[in-house]
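Posting this for the archive.
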Amino acid sequence: MERVKNAALSALPQNWQPTDQELSLTIYDFPSEQPQGDVDNIIKRIQDAMNNVIYVDDKQVRRVVAHRFLPDEYSDVVTLPPLIMEAIANEPPFVYLTIRSNPFGDAQ
């Protein structure tokens, strides 16, 4: 998950310090082929990659929502943000992450 960590570092503002707030994490996984493991296998690896990058420790993540889009489903997806649609057009695999400081978000 070094690529995830490096992508996060490149997206963060200069002088960013890992937060100690409670957070929520949304993961959209776009594998290039049928994955061998379950969707939950990727969650812990991504959370660990964000330690001391986005947050101090992954125990701060109070809520996780994960969705795996299989390759044969890409054409059925029409309501994704333009950034994701561009990434799909440029060939998966990729992972799209959203991190929010309101850990319960739309679940409230």
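Residues 2-10+18-107 form a domain with the 60s Ribosomal Protein L30; Chain: A; fold (CATH 3.30.1330). The longest strand covers residues 23-30.
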